[in-house]
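Quick one: structure for this chain?
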Amino acid sequence: MPFLRHSLFLVLAAASGAATAGQPALTPTTAASGLPLAPEQAAVTFDRAELSFRVDPSRKSLEGDATLRFIARDVLQRLVVDLDRNYRIDLVEIDGRAIDAGHWRNPEGRMSVDLPAPLPAGGGATLRIRYTGSPHVATRAPWDGGFVWATAPTGEPWIATAVQGEGCDLLWPCIDHPRGEPREVVQHVTVPSPLVAPGNGVAEGMEEHTDASGKRWRTYHWRAKQPNTYAIALDVGPYALLQADYRSRHGNTIPLRFWHLAGNADKARGLFAEFAPMLDFFEEVIGPYPFADEKMGVVETPHLGMEHQTINAYGNDYRKSEAGYDWLLQHEFAHEWFGNQLTNVDWDDMWLHEGFGTYMQPLYLQWLRGDMEYMAALMKMRASLLNKYPIVSGRSMTEEAVYDAAHGPGNDIYYKAALMLHTLRGLVGDEAFFRSIRELVYGTDAPRPGGFKPRHASTADYVAIVDRVAGRDLGWFFDVYLRSAALPELVARREGDSLALRWQTEGGKPFPMPVQVRVGATVVDVSMTGGSGRIALPAGASYTLDPHSRVLRALPHIVEFQQDTAARAKAAADKAKAEAAKQ
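Got it. Here's what it folds into:
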């Protein structure tokens, strides 16, 4: 998923199907990820995908050979997968039997293949598709999905894919929906020798061979369990490898692997040293690393980053933040829990990936250094909220609709959701809060290495978990923060020798959120039963609402700051445009 951006008012660019120079446009079907499943897609279990890729940098071409195993949950007449129609289809087979062009079609990027005979419920079928072509090029990866054909500083080809926005169908025939994860994916990646091709999951060997023209090639073999569909990635380059084994606090051993450009060895060793403390943080605060029997893997890429399962893309140029660690590495690694282990059932629930992943950064600072840096990180997030659209719409959404801040929540699924989690933590207490996260991620409060599998969940699933572990109905909390655009406003008014408090919410929704008020040197707890409360306020006494910043709420001074910043940015842009017109 596109990574968190640390720049004020920057929003993630929406995916676009428009053609760029030298390549055809994507169809609306291919340009969108997370469209409603076809009935045939909803009626199968995706058992296994075996994917062979031949990447030719000299021609910027891809040869793909996908063998997909499905198990029917209902009677099926055909199989349906998503694949960019701009590829040429060279072969289609069902269970080893060739299917002629009259029995398959791919007009808009949703490929339908007629079965030779109806497949009964419980029956299995294997679909093979061989395809070739020039894959879609990402002009602004990872916001614009596709291939990145770059050149390493040492002159060799340097290639990566990032396909979250447009989906896995830019790369392989898949079910382009969060619920389309195969149980297992095997990859065979062929690249010119001596290039290296790190991959998802466990390495199963590499062999070299020579083609008829005398050109040398390498084929790398990888095997991964239940990867997120867009987390399947191709990475090719002149890589060197840093590796170590990490002894987990849970008693198991986790392989650590970092493929970096050969010229960056010194910087790479510094970044590699950050792997262990980050891993320890997540294992202590959340639970066991989900893919410990595969690896914690990172690969240096010519784009900024993406949470490709067990082979996270990293392109932050080894920058340090003021916090003294690499925020991009930490954010993408968070998605191994919130995105890869736990996958949302629909893009409308994307805050489960991005909000939790974002909240892990101030939590990491609190774990590393204490409360001051935790609160500073939260304050930095607070200044960027948009509050124009609800985080959760209550209907099925595409990736584009969620990330497009002009028509959807945009960056609020990161920052607003993270700040909501901070508020929830204060409301229910640490024990219930972290238990709710463990149950969401693992399906149990007592996860053990090897004792859980990747899972799907929705917003409603998490709300139900919180209600249960907190022992009370907190639907009102999520209704205001997730399903309303505006933040709740705490209205305070002096009335004689008292202070009257009232929550004002969008649509008048109930919001009995308790608050604290500092009166002089004393902090008073106000229950706010029914959404209002009153406390004694002697004449001349000062007061501070929510003095420990526990509650996410509307703050007029933040809005004024945002408006002033936006106006100054516009004035500077207009001035630059006017000066350019004079020249």
